[in-house]
Amino acid sequence: MNETCQERIIEHFEGRMDDLRILWDLYMEDSEAEDYDIGNMYDYGLAFDYVAPHTFKEQDEGYFRYQLSWGGPSDEFRIYASPGGGRGQQFSVYRIEYWFLDWFDGAHKILLGADRKLLEEIFYNFFDDSGTTTVQYDEAMIDYRDEDDYDEDEEDEETEDDFLESVADKTDRYEEFFSGDGVPDDVKTAVDNIISGIRKVLDNK
């Protein structure tokens, strides 16, 4: 029986952290330095981008994604950070997670202690200082805001349709009520004129 992602995550996480410690130490000594087996910081992993809120189902928070591999399995670090920070930083990190995913299964681990400190150093000194965080965040949030505007317009249209349908329904009921026996002719005439005006407005919508 195949192991679950939860059963496999620690081995993969520890391997990634070992790689990053080696590469980060090399980078801090010489940004162009390489390890024979795993290369250098610039080549390690696949991508670094920002995932806006609600990109995926039930995803309320946005996060920076340091994607290391893709397919089955795939793994990535998710760095949750708020815009703004001290000491010239563009963002302030408040949580970091490592995710291991493999075909309809997944597991994650929250980074603590020395592991979190290392990823924060990489985030601030490698991605944030270079302006990569700002570029990726701005690009993702432009699309996110555009989708929000579209959704609001769509909701307004739906609300208007519901309102017009309600008016039409009430107009039919008022017409039926005031056309009954016992209603004075002058009242019927006045109501007919009002209903006629309402229907003209509805027909133009």
What does this structure look like?
- The chain is α+β, with helices and mostly antiparallel strands and 205 residues long.
- The chain has two domains: 5-130; 146-203.
- It is built from four helices and five strands.
- It has helices spanning 5-29, 113-128, 132-178, 185-203, and strands spanning 47-51, 63-69, 74-83, 91-101, 106-110.
- A hairpin with a 4-residue loop joins strand 4 (91-101) and strand 5 (106-110).
- It starts with a helix and ends with a helix.
For the structure shown, list the relevant keywords.
single chain, about 200 residues, alpha+beta, five-stranded antiparallel β-sheet, 4 helices, 5 strands, about 50% helix, about 20% strand, elongated
Mean pLDDT: 84
Helix content, binned percent: 40-55%
How do the helices and strands follow one another from N- to C-terminus?
A: HEEEEEHHH
Find the count of extended strands (DSSP E, 2+ residues).
Answer: 5
Number of helices: 4
Oligomer: single chain
Strand content: 15-25%
Main β-sheet, spatial strand arrangement:
1-2-3-4-5
